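hey so i finally got around to running both of the ones u sent me last week. sorry it took forever, my laptop kept dying halfway thru and i had to restart like 3 times lol. anyway pasting them below in the order u listed, first the sequence line then the structure token line for each. didnt double check formatting much so if smth looks off just lmk and ill redo it

first one:
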Amino acid sequence: MKHAIFAAAVALLAPHDTPSTRPEDGPFPAHRVVGNVYYVGSKQLASFLITTDQGHILINSGFDQTVPLIQASIEHLGFRFQDVKILLTSHAHGDHVGGHALVKRLTGARVMVMTGDDDVVRSGGKGDVEPGREWEGSPVDQVLHDRDKVRLGSVVLVAHLTPGHTKGTTTWTLKVKEGAQLYDVVIIGGGGPNPDYQLVGNLKYPTISEDFARSYRILKALPCDIPLGPHGNYYGLEAKYARLQADSSRNPFVDAETYRQMVIFKEKEFEAMLARQRGLKPEPGTGSASYQISSRLGPAGSPRQASISNLLSR
């Protein structure tokens, strides 16, 4: 029955021509990441379910067309979609919050959004994204601030304001126990500037470059055993899931080194982009950050190198 529900949800997605359903994306097997943290997103758009005995927390809704897939993934794992009590997000772009309004209608979940992104979620991106790319706006039940704690049952998530990708980009941290081990999980809010970002003289976002620089300092200071993010390629989802299927005795998502290198890599890319826009010569080593980091992560095409290199496109 669960497999039938999952297949039906995938069929619902098929007619829609959105980034969540184009050939480069598609369904991805729902699975446990660690403890009570589960992956319930698509191949490229990450959504995470955090379960408790008082209901569940969902991070990221994808597009509205992605919501049936998320629902099917949750139910495939044996949980009830209607038990989602809190809906959170990484950042207010349509591929992560476009389904918020639908999730709220279906579950009644409280929508909590970081200050800076709250108006964007309410308006459906109007005035903040390119015309024609807006989504259905969602009510926001609570506006969060830096280091606010979101509690449900025994779970405590800490919201870290890491702006730049959007004004309210939020990196979530929580401690998760599995067996006798306690892990620091970091769900990164946004990796860095997109290629079309204006880092200098941005009248709509004058502090964008300062915000990015501060966010990298915050990210480097966070303890992390398990890095996750709003897109699967932030942390090598496909390769790690394949390793998990091949050998479930070791958790491939425990990968502190990838997190450390990932933050360094994105900071160097940001610094190089900022220098170019300022008309300056990049600092020594900045332009070759990709080579310097990749060379320490193993041969070309290795899972760890791929998880770092793919960040360039997000």
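and the second one:
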Amino acid sequence: MVCWRRQYLNISNFNVGKFCIMRRIILLSLLVLSIVGCEEDAAPLVETIRSIKSIVVESRTGLQARRISGVVESDVVSDLSFEVGGRIVVLDVEFGDAVAESEEIARLDEEPYRLRVQTVTSELMEANARLRDAREKYTQQSTLHEQGFATKTAYEAALADYEAA
């Protein structure tokens, strides 16, 4: 078969052969597509109902209990103003609640303050004991100095300790 374009294009035999082959492939493809397009419509898909295995979940007591120790901390942190710092242990209001003047809205942990009071009380008792001891030594050195049995240096040291206490 001679390609009809051969006479008009004046192209070598090799290129003309390729053109004819391409023409044949295109015509064959169009023929196949036209035949495929004429097929009957496919039958509609039938929807199948599938069965489902279901399980009822119940809470069973006594099987397994997990106990985890730790400290729960809040994700939300709010800046509040107190006269003293500390950790909030009771929060009596929620966000957006109305509060009256002098109403307690939160309570701080009292334990650090109790411990501080105990520490200060023991420091006060220790200072009172040092004062009594310094007073007794001063009285003793004063009496001995007046009688001439103690040196002036010992008397002045006892006086300085008493005044410092």
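quick thing i noticed on the 2nd:
The first helix runs from residue 6 to 9.
anyway thats it, ttyl
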